[in-house]
Amino acid sequence: MSSVVLSTTARQVLYIVLAFSVFLLMRGHNEPGGGFIGGLLAASGIVTYYISFGLHSGDQAFPFNYLNVSGAGLLLAMLAGIGPMFLGYPFLTAGFQAITLPAVGTIELSSVLVFDVGVYLVVIGTVMTIVRVLVLERRIAESESVGEDGAAWRP
Amino acid sequence: MSWILPTSVLLSFLLGLLAPLLYRGIGERVGRALAFYPLGLFVLFASLAPAIAEGEALRLQLPWIPAAGIHFGFALDGLAMLFVLLITGIGALVFYYAGWYLDPQEDQGKFFAYLTLFLGAMLGVVLADNLILLYLFWEMTSFTSFLLIGFWSHRDESRYGALKALLVTAGGGLALLAGIVLILVAAGTVDISALLAGSGALRESVLYPAILLTVVVGAFTKSAQVPFHLWLPNAMEAPTPVSAYLHSAAMVKAGIYLIARMSGMLGDTALWVLVVSAVGIISLVLGSYLALRQTDLKAILAFSTISQLGLIVSLFGWGTPLAVTAAVFHTLNHSVFKAGLFMMVGIVDHETHTRDIRRLSGLVRYMPGTAAVAGLTSLALAGVPPFNGFISKEMFFKASLGVDSLFAWAPGLGSFLSYAFPILAVLGSTLTFVYSMMIFHGVFLKKSAPHMLDAQPHDPPVGLLLSPVILGVLALLIGIVPGLVDRNVVAAATNAILGSEAALALYLWHGFELPLVMSLAVIGLGGVAYVRIEGFRRFLGSIPSRLNVNAAYDWALAALPRIAEGVTGRMMTGFTRDYFVYLLSFFVVIMGLAAWATSGFPLTVSQLTFDEIAGVELLVVVLGIAATFSILLFRTRVAAVIALGAVGMSIVLLFILFRAPDVALTMLIVETVAFVLFLMVFVYLPRLVPDRYQAGPRIVNTLLATLVGGTVTILMLGVSGVRTHSPISEWLSEHSLSLAHGRNVVNVILVDFRALDTLGEIAVLALAGMGVYILSNLRAKGDSSK
């Protein structure tokens, strides 16, 4: 699946999509967005990159074990829940702190952002795990099925 | 003093866990050393017995799950005292005996760990004052019994016997648990003392028959009563000290304890008297009959235990003061002589390497000490005066004579049973007499066949003989001087069961009455039958045994996996379309049942106004419906998937029109990613051949699709028509900013208000990813079977 247009634009598109996904993640508390949408968007950007450059180059550009990404996200979400318990609050209690930064203005930091980042990472990790597995499966199938009732495999 | 109740239980568990270490330290002396622990408990509890007999029960209650009314409640009354003394007293003798009996090469650390854990669990059962706590210890005795029966785990028979015992007794335990839950529902408490104090509540409850049956099934499985007796003979694969302890003196007596305990709450009703006494008397007769057909000494004793426990159970069924006194006394007597008999058989097995009565005879010349033990204990079992078994058996005969007054609700049945019970009692006791003579006279005294053993046997070391000698002497001593145990043990337990000072005094000589005639008849008939033993056994062998619960057990054990495999094979076809049919049919059926059970809901369509619908909304909906139908028309998969995408996109458009940008955005990306994933798996899918489905499945599918669509439509209409509360979305919108500092309600719900749900969802998501990864790796390695 090599296309000049796709491979030229994919890199630029990826940057924009990833930046936008982080933007969606950060503003999710007050405007449309959030960890789930952000994660899906980032995953679709990464998939676009894989489609353009193939599995090998994709793995080189994103040298993660995506299962670990899922695990890290889950851990982060758990920590966001357990953290308040050390301060005597129930599991998953949210905390808020408004801080004023020069030149930016007052922004409110919330502990739910940590939870949302966890969701973001789990979504990316899971989608990418499944996509990579399916690509690898197809490779195995293609290498095996040639000549062996090939008609059954053709769409 | 009440602290000793939980302490004795917990200390046993602790000691059980330490036993392997102790074994490493002092080697094969571990059993003899550990025997001092139950001995100490026995002395300690025995010193409390006079006070307990005065009616001063010890109680202790620690909170555990107060919300459910479950406490670490312990109580020691007269009934518990009887069993504590049996468990610790016989326990000490068994520990000492086992220390001599076991081969030095055996893993004695493991053995005594199991045995001490069992001792603790057993103490827990009788000391628990809360039924849930009792159940916990009850299952622990089943479990430790499983480990002990299977102690020689390299033998197939041991494993078979252990599994059978576990399945039967733990299955009965589940019935007991159901009964306990029903008691909680009916009486509102599971505290035994509270239940005994307000005992009328349970008997008047509509749940009473269910409570009674589930509880007695639990007790009958534990006490190996017909038809749950099948596990006990196979449990004889255990090392003999285990059989002496668990399967005669202690664990099977837990069922007796439960019946005794429950008779205060559930007893004295028509159903109780009928069920409990009938099962008991049938077990008595059938057990002694089956014992006569055995040739293995331990098998004879196993069936004898079934039969003797049946005698006790039937006495508790009758429940008169005389019957309860006799039951309590026989519980004590049976533990004493049966543990002694098992130890004696263990010695014979140990010295001659066989337990087959056809090969054993005239042992008295070589093993006089063992023969003396056999004489004392088997004469007590046979009910010969002046042994302890004679007194309790005579009281049993006397109790069996007055049963017609218990059946006032059915005089015809009562007068029939007032003949049937005494006749069956004499019959069972006669058979008992015969096999007792087979054990004592046949093995030790008879001088018939030439020596059939490989080597000349001789008496064992004094250490091995000590425990059974003590038990044998005790059987005689209690018979001659029943006052030894009368006031402080038997009367105390009887009064605790009956709830009043109603226990009868024990006498060796009851006067010349009908029960004495029955006792003499037993000895006379049994003697004649024993003299003609060959013919008698031939006669018994000719009776066909049609009702074979063992065959049923084996069949069920083999059939269960076969049936499960058949069902699974039929259900799991490997075709997603079949799974969808199951899922959706279930949905329609469950919704239909719910609608039928709640007699539906009003379908008001009057509040639906169509003029609020904008033209563009209508257009999107029409497009979506058209796209849905077009899926059916396409002949290639790609076209069908694109049409499905069009359906998704029309829903995205609807979300945008209804100002739900979050949902629309999510759906848009989900549609995109799903399409990419579809392209990935595309290559595996077989060619789409619409004609391959035959008319039948197509009609079913069409019908199901229509039903699902119709159900959802009606549900949606109904939901909007029967709203009784203000929707939660209003509350969430109001409080999103004030409580969670967020203006995006959707996201606040996801990460704050319902964050726990989200945590669960992302955990499932991550697990699904992991599952796909693992499945693929298995396939790549070629491990996949299908």
User: Number of helix segments of chain A?
Assistant: 5
Number of continuous helical runs of chain B: 32
* Number of β-strand runs of chain A: 2
Overall body shape of chain B = elongated
Helix content of chain A: over 70%
* SSE-based structural type of chain B: mainly alpha
**Helix/strand order of chain A, N-terminal first:** HHHEEHH
Separation, N- and C-terminal Cα atoms of chain A: 17 Å
Q: First CA to last CA of chain B: what distance? A: 65 Å
Q: Which percent bin holds the helix content of chain B? A: over 70%
Query: Total strand count of chain B, please?
Result: 2
Low-confidence stretches of chain B: none
Oligomeric category: heterodimer
Strand order of the largest sheet of chain A: 1-2
Shape of chain A: flat
Describe the biggest sheet of chain B?
Answer: 2 strands, antiparallel
In short:
The complex is a heterodimer of chains A (155) and B (786). Chain A is mostly helical and 155 residues long.
Keywords:
heterodimer; A: 155 residues; mainly alpha; two-stranded antiparallel ribbon; 5 helices; 8% strand; flat; disordered C terminus; B: 786 residues; two-stranded antiparallel sheet; 74% helix; elongated
Notes on the structure:
The complex is a heterodimer of chains A (155) and B (786). Chain A has 155 residues and is mainly alpha-helical. Chain A contains 5 helices and 2 strands, in the order αααββαα. In chain A, strand 1 (96-101) and strand 2 form a beta hairpin. In chain A, helix 1 runs antiparallel to helix 2 (35-61) and helix 3 (66-86) runs antiparallel to helix 4 (112-145). The longest helix of chain A is centred in the last third of the chain and has 34 residues, at 112-145. The radius of gyration of chain A is 20 Å and the shape is flat. The model of chain A is unreliable at 146-155 (pLDDT under 50). Chain B is 74% helix and 2% strand. Chain B is built from 32 helices and 2 strands. Chain B has helices at residues 4-26, 30-34, 36-53, 78-101, 108-127, 131-149, 156-187, 192-197, 200-204, 208-222, 231-234, 240-249, 251-266, 270-292, 297-318, 321-352, 368-382, 388-401, 411-445, 462-480, 483-498, 514-531, 533-541, 549-571, 576-597, 615-633, 637-657, 661-681, 695-721, 728-740, 745-753, 755-780; strands at 58-65, 70-76. In chain B, a hairpin with a 4-residue loop joins strand 1 and strand 2. In chain B, helix 16 (321-352) runs antiparallel to helix 20, helix 17 packs antiparallel against helix 19 and helix 27 runs antiparallel to helix 28. The longest helix of chain B is centred in the middle third of the chain and has 35 residues, at 411-445. Chain B is elongated and about 110 Å long.
